[in-house]
Amino acid sequence: MAKIKTLAMLAAGVSCLALASGAASAGEVTWWSPNFNVERAEELKVKFEAANPDITLNIESTTTNGLPQRILTTLRSGSAPDLIDAQHPWVTGYAQNDLVLPLDDVIEDRDDYNKAAIDYVTYEGKLWGVPYRIEALAVLCNRGHFEEAGLDPENPPATWAEFLDAAQKLTHDGRSGFAITGGGEVGNTIFRSVPFIWENGGELVSADGKTAEVNGEKAVEAIKYWTDMYTEYGVSPASTLENDGTANRRLFIAEKVSCYQSGQFDIGSIQKENPAIDILPIMTPHPEGGNPSAILGGWSWVIPSSAKNPDDAKTLIKWLAQPENMGFYTDTFPARVSAMDLPRFDEPILKVFGEMLPYGRPLPNHPRWVQIAQAYFDGVQRILIGEQDVQASMDDAASDIQRLLDQ
Questions:
Q1: How many separate domains does the chain show?
Q2: Most buried by CB count within 10 Å: which residue of 75, 206, 209, 279?
Q3: Strands 130-135 and 333-334
Q4: CA distance 197 to 30
Q5: 226 and 373 in one domain?
Q6: Which CATH number covers residue 199?
Q7: Same domain, 334 and 275
């Protein structure tokens, strides 16, 4: 009863705010676009309104830090915008809780979409989001630093042992060889460390989603390799505990870091802010005799169940999903195969990122994924601050995750 009263008070508060600011009218769509996309969204807004003069498009910029909880809060409030950009792994959780609308009537050419991306946003045979962006992280390195350290840029390190050796050689005189993430939005650490677990034969949770496995031997071994970059070998910056992907990019641009994990979305900023850096993308290192791994990342458009103008929002998605519009909007790879034909995706520097895509796989599909991810992230932080060793911390993380799986 207390929960119902709390939700009612929240909904009432949001309603009052809506009345004060003026509720959205028919023919008006409010779109939450991430801050890294919002400039392109504004350009698309002009074209969309010209093609659809009966619909006014309002764009609100969101920030990735804290975004999962912000979206969840607004979806539960009953007073959400009409369209939201959300990461693929979040979508089925919304569907399982009746927070978004099915979108099977929005796309007719499903075969033109990356299958893994479609599977990400499908639940009980229905489509709950329209994917527009896919990506797999690789490792960005400074070619000049490689050459200075006597490393061969044309034959970069591939295995864990080779990469650790390279990171140690690159670390000197206040420069760090390989920056890992220890802070910021949880997804920074999830997307960078979990692939090491997978390529070593470990898992976060079992395939049936019933058992936490993050404390298994293979998972612990991989997490130790990744966190040892900071705790044992000191090849990751002193600021690792605060650093997210953006902080590591800035350190790379300042040439204080030689390598870090990222996607092609960072390339433009690096080239603009320090054109002297010769960027060397390499595949994610893997255990001897194994293969690289990556989380298939990316974003989808979703329409909240409480959207005031869902039909107009669907019109907007159909327009945005046209290959030329989708290709323009994303700063990685588009989810539509036909959009990949655009010239901008044929640049040589993107080759490694394209080669990483086949090694990409989705994160576990679970309605409590956001909380599961937080439990894992908390465990990684305990390791980085020296509070627990890897096995003990992952045992605690597994207990926390198991409670979530059993609910």
A1: 2
A2: 75
A3: antiparallel
A4: 39
A5: yes
A6: 3.40.190.10
A7: no
- In tens, the pLDDT along 196-232 reads 999 999 999 999 999 999 999 999 999 999 999 999 9
Residue 25: pLDDT over 70: no
Residue 5 has pLDDT above 50, yes or no: no
Same-domain check for residues 248 and 143: yes
- Cα-based distances in Å from 145 to 42, 169, 247: 38, 10, 19
CA 398 to chain centre: 22
Is 13 a member of any domain?
no
CB-CB contact of 82 with 304 (8 Å) = yes
Q: Are 373 and 191 in contact (CB under 8 A)?
A: no
If pLDDT is split at 50, 70 and 90, which confidence band does 99 have? very high
Q: Which residue has the higher pLDDT, 275 or 64?
A: 275
8 A C-beta contact, residue 142 and residue 341: no
pTM greater than 0.70: yes
Closest CA to 406 of 235, 221, 205: 205
Confidence of residue 66 (pLDDT cuts 50, 70, 90): confident
Instruction: Give the number of other CB atoms < 10 A from CB of residue 9.
Output: 10
Q: In this model, does residue 314 exceed pLDDT 60?
A: yes
Residue bearing tokens 């898992």: 203
Report the alpha-carbon distance of residue 320 to residue 387 in Å, rounded: 47
Task: Kindly state whether residue 6 falls inside one of the protein's structural domains.
Answer: no
Per-residue pLDDT at 22 = 37
Q: Do residues 173 and 269 share a domain?
A: yes
Domain membership flag for residue 170: yes
Burial (CB count within 10 angstroms: exposed 0-12, middle 13-18, buried 19+), residue 384:
buried
Residues 145 and 242 in one domain: yes
CA–CA distance, 212 with 371 (Å, rounded to integer): 13
Query: Is pLDDT of 15 > 80?
Result: no
Q: For residue 1, tell me if it sits in a domain.
A: no
375 in the same domain as 264? yes
Measured CA to CA in angstroms, residue 24 lies from 39, 61, 104, 173 at distances of 23, 17, 25, 57
Question: Does the pLDDT value for residue 13 go beyond 70?
Answer: no
Same domain, 282 and 304: no
Same domain, residue pair 125 and 233: no
**What's the domain range around 87?**
23-135+297-361
